[in-house]
């Protein structure tokens, strides 16, 4: 009886790290929480509306770029996330009008960067979430840092593309 209890206890202790890693919550951000690239500051061409980031009125700028720092929610382990999801309102099917979100890995010592995956909006005036697949085992916070770059592009001042949300899970 004691032997069986010990085996069950050992199994439970060995399985604990697996169950904990499976419970890592999603990393999330609202689009209005990003750090807008300084190129968008003079003249100001962006606006925050609630959770959204989009163009300021009839701004003539063709794009907005914002960055979102990704933090390790599985510390001291690495998360097993495999999906980047972009929430966006994409009002025009015309080429050049879109919202993209790119997961970028940064070497913590050299600053060398590598794009991991990019989610691209699809035309939907009510808003839609678009995923991209992150290769398994991508995240290693001991060697790298990560951020998401959101780029909102348009070809005419009447197009109202918006980024709304980001998730990594």
Defining traits:
169 residues, mainly beta, Jelly Rolls, six-stranded antiparallel sheet, five-stranded antiparallel sheet, 1 helix, 11 strands, 12% helix
Task: Detail the topology: elements first, then pairings.
Elements: H1 2-22, E1 27-30, E2 35-36, E3 46-49, E4 52-55, E5 63-70, E6 83-90, E7 98-107, E8 113-120, E9 124-133, E10 144-153, E11 162-168
Antiparallel strand pairs: 1-11, 2-5, 3-4, 4-11, 5-10, 6-9, 6-11, 7-8, 7-10
User: Measured on Cα atoms, how large is the radius of gyration?
Assistant: 20 Å
Q: Summarize model confidence as the mean pLDDT.
A: 88
- As for the CATH topology, it is Jelly Rolls
The low-pLDDT segments are 4-21
Oligomeric form: single chain
CATH class categorisation: Mainly Beta
Number of strands: 11
Q: Strand fraction band? A: 35-45%
SS summary, helix count: 1
Shape: globular
Provide the structure class. mainly beta
CATH superfamily: Galactose-binding domain-like
Give the name of the CATH architecture: Sandwich
Largest sheet: 6 strands, antiparallel
Count structural domains: 1
SSE series:
HEEEEEEEEEEE
């Amino acid at each position: 009886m004691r032997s069986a209890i010990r085996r069950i206890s050992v199994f439970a202790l060995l399985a604990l790290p697996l169950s904990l890693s499976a419970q890592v919550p999603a990393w999330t951000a609202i689009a209005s929480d990003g750090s807008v690239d300084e190129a968008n500051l003079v003249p100001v061409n962006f606006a925050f509306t609630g959770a959204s980031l989009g163009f300021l009125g009839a701004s003539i700028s063709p794009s907005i770029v914002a960055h979102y720092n990704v933090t390790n929610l599985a510390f001291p382990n690495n998360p097993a996330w495999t999906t980047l999801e972009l929430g966006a309102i994409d009002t025009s099917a015309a080429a050049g009008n879109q919202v993209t979100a790119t997961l970028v890995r940064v070497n913590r010592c050299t600053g060398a960067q590598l794009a991991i995956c990019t989610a691209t909006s699809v035309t939907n005036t009510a808003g839609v979430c678009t995923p991209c697949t992150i290769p398994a085992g991508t995240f290693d916070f001991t060697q790298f840092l990560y951020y998401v770059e959101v780029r909102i592009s348009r070809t005419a001042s009447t197009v109202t593309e918006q980024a709304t949300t980001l998730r990594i899970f």
